[in-house]
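Input chain follows. Return structure tokens only.
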Amino acid sequence: MKKNLLKTTKLSLVISAALLSSTMTLTSLPASAALPDNVAGQVMPSLAPMLEHTTPAVVSIAVKGTHKVKQQNVPESFKFFFGNKGQNQAQQRPFRGLGSGVIIDSDKGYVVTNNHVIENADEILITLKDGRQLTAKKLGSDSESDIALLQIEADNLKEIKLADSDVLRVGDFTVAIGSPFGLGQTVTSGIVSALGRSNLNIERYEDFIQTDAAINSGNSGGALVNLRGELIGINTAILGPGGGNVGIGFAIPSNMMNNLVSQIIEFGEVRRGILGVSGRSVNSDIAKAMELDTSQGGFIEQVMPDSAADEAGIKAGDVIIAVNGKAIKSFFELRAKIGSIGANKEVELTVIREGDEEKFTVKLKQSQGSNIAAASIHRMLDGAKLENDKSDNGIVIENVADGSPAQLAGLQSGDTIIGVNRSRIKNIAQLRDYLKDKKGVLALNIVRDNQTQYLMIR
């Protein structure tokens, strides 16, 4: 990496003797000048006191290990030169990596970092700010949220205090501490530029704090703190051409990290709780179609039978707008918050149903794999053969053409359409009348296997 060096040039000031009075006394200027400690009796603001207390809790991490590489196909005529032994050795390639970490418990030596920093590592070496080097033991990790917990043994460790990341606001000041490019501990500052960033395809569970404090390669796993020196996030990713910093960095919120780490400490792994729903983020189209007063939240399209949501009374068509009293902006944020809470834990969901706000207490069940998945993108109704229900209480889908937009939207043979948006539909004639002048998104209310759900159709 090229370093841009700022060169300074000495400037000579020639002052005409004619401008100097005989009574003027010239005083030599100091060779260098520093900011004064105070001006007019007022102490100058500085981050130094906070950093002197906080930076000892941030460590540098160096890892060694091997990872598998794809074996090259060697033509038969060349196998004489390579042989099977050479091919087998080529499958394992050594690597080295650098990152950062944060001491969250000085008594037990717990260090939090990113999973991608220590993944596949055979040796993890931690360097404290005072220069001590220690070998770390991996206690557990979660690749889906990119969190890992390490442990070291040493005296006089410094830990960092955790802040409540749920009370952060856009515009709050932030300070990022880490070891970018292996240069050693470095501090940068900025503000919270956005909250609840998700759907970035960086991790499976995303609820990032976005900051313009400079975060670069090697900062991963380091601390994002507030002006009190409290941990508000774990620096994780950057967004920029070539992996360079352009003022957009992402950190895992401290509350999310703490939930995951608590599970690793208790169980040695993350036992993720699930709600058992599928849906999508509320937008202006959905809000208009469903006559909602909000354009934010998670719209529930389907509730899985016997799931935590089903047992708590959550229904398709509900809009979840808060988890444990904290507002959510999107279905992805709902997914991330629920995904960081452990199995068998109770959460309070604030729901809008038929225009009214209700609260539900849900006991999360344990994930057995993929839990909350985003529904398919808006599709049209074309390709479905419709028939009126015998009792005139809906429209039965008798057949769905292979590869049709209706099939891609998720419609299946045997589904019964009972409503569109918030209007009850009894037969095909009503459906035609309703759709005649409708544009944009349609929330199709269907019954499948005796369970009500919604599909979004454009």
